[in-house]
Write a structure and sequence with these properties.
By secondary structure, this protein is of the alpha+beta class. The protein contains nine helices and 18 strands. Helices cover 38% and strands 32% of the residues. The protein starts with a helix and ends in a 5-residue tail after the last helix.
């Protein structure tokens, strides 16, 4: 087959390989989606991500408005009455949250998801201002306003109340009895408890304080986020998960992560958080959070996805390697044989994905690489006509597998390692092919081009001929 036609056929085979790799990639996406679905199902049957907001001290009140509506003619009229329910929300002046997480993996078939049980201790103090400053009063000939205060309560917001296993506490020395419903406009899900504090006691009092302490056993999955609701907040979290991803609006002030678990500490102030816009009745307000997510840095599907990013380049390099050995050894490799070699490379990615669901990713990767090297080495020996050539091809393939694994393990150096490796491969290819007469491989009618060595030999012969004496 002429070289031009062969290059055209190889280009078509490359397109078919892209299709095959696309099928493997779609299978990876399907398995990854299934794993995420299982995580959602586990969270649905236990408890999902937990966002803990508060506690807040809530003073509900009702504003009664009477407006005079004159009748037609202006001689008589009536008072129209309406009422509006409002809330005065107070955040703690000082808040401390101490939590310990016990994390375990729940499995369903081949898939698993991290879940946790936490022991949380919340403590702090509220500074209660004089409520008279918040009353709406008005009395004239056309409008009258009056304020009626309800029973204050302590509110705690939770994103998934199913995770509450035990909750007890006290405020002002009195035990609290929690009931469902947070009673907060910006966070309706949660619990609340009536506080033994009469509104009349703080109607005109200045600077009265209310201390509280809560003990909460909370279950959840994937993440735990705590709102630093106090004017001054301190959050301490510790657990046995060795791979936490700290999340939220603030980085931990101190952290410690090792193989046994993690420990982190956050400290915030009202100056840093800007207060809580949700307490000011703003719509679409965004709360501040600190906490962590339970991520798996060696997630098999994430690593398989990173491996597939190099699939096209990997196949292209090996196709070029086969072509280079074909030219150097002066053998003819049929396009069908190229196709089988490329399909064997595509099977490596499929084997890695399927084995990683039963074994660790590293073991699955090397088992698939070993099977691929043995298969391609044996087949390459037959195609290229010698065990030496097959061994060279298998060695090239093993080196690429090792290089790819190193790139996968080093996220920060992946780009540098990849670019340097490609440059080295290009330089090696240029060195090995520097004496190949590409013109003679084209199958044309022109005489083959003279190689560099032949040109140098002819030049030396002409130089010697000028100094040789003529024969008489």
């Amino acid at each position: 087959m002429k070289m031009g036609w062969k290059m055209l056929v190889l280009a078509g085979m490359g397109l078919l390989m892209l299709l095959a790799l696309g099928l493997v990639r779609s299978l990876l996406d399907e398995r990854q989606s299934r794993a995420e679905e299982v995580q959602r199902e586990i969270a649905q049957f236990s408890a999902g991500e937990q966002n803990l907001s508060g506690p807040y001290l809530v003073f509900p009140y009702t504003v009664r408005v009477d407006k005079w509506q004159p009748a037609e003619g202006g001689k008589s009229g009536r008072w129209a009455q309406s009422e509006e329910s409002k809330q005065l929300l107070l955040s703690p002046s000082q808040l401390t949250v101490d939590g310990k997480l016990a994390v375990e993996l729940l499995k369903r078939g081949l898939f698993e998801a991290p879940v946790y049980r936490s022991q949380l201790q919340l403590g702090g103090q509220f500074h209660i201002p004089a409520l008279a400053a918040y009353e709406e009063t008005l009395n004239n000939d056309t409008e009258r306003r009056s304020t009626r205060w309800g029973k204050p309560y302590l509110a705690l917001g939770l994103s998934d109340v199913r995770g509450i296993q035990q909750l007890a506490g006290q405020a002002g020395g009195q035990a609290l009895a929690f009931v469902p419903g947070a009673g907060l406009a910006h966070s309706p899900r949660g619990v609340h408890a009536v506080v033994a504090l009469a509104a009349s006691d703080v109607l005109h009092a200045q600077g009265q304080g209310l201390s509280f302490r809560l003990g909460l056993q909370l279950a959840g999955s994937s993440a735990l986020l705590v709102e630093p609701a106090g004017d001054s907040s301190t959050v301490n979290l510790a657990g046995n998960w060795p791979h936490p991803s700290f999340a939220g609006n603030f980085a931990p002030q101190s952290r410690s992560v090792n193989a046994q678990g993690f420990r982190a500490r956050w400290q915030t102030s009202e100056l840093a958080t800007g207060g809580n816009p949700c307490l000011q009745g703003k719509s679409g307000c965004e709360q501040n959070w600190v906490g962590l997510r339970l991520l798996d840095p060696v997630d098999r599907y994430v690593l398989n996805e990173r491996t597939m990013k190099y699939a096209e380049l990997f196949v292209l390099l090996m196709m070029g390697g086969v072509f280079l050995l074909e030219v150097i050894n002066r053998v003819s490799v049929h396009p069908v044989q190229y196709t089988l070699v490329m399909l064997g490379l595509a099977m490596f990615f499929l084997l890695t994905l399927s084995l990683s669901e039963h074994l660790g990713f590293a073991m699955a990767y090397w088992l698939a690489a070993l099977a691929s090297v043995l298969l391609q080495g044996a087949y390459g020996s037959s195609v290229l006509g010698s065990w030496q050539s097959g061994g060279v091809f298998a060695g090239m393939l093993a080196a690429l597998y090792g290089l790819l694994f190193m790139i996968l393990q080093s996220q920060d150096m992946a780009l540098l390692m990849g670019s340097l490796s490609l440059f080295a491969l290009l330089a090696l290819t240029m060195y090995l092919t520097r004496r190949i007469d590409w013109g003679s491989l084209g199958g044309g009618s022109k005489a083959p081009a003279v190689t560099a060595d032949r040109q140098q030999t002819d030049a030396q012969s002409r130089s010697l001929a000028r100094w040789q004496p003529a024969v008489l």
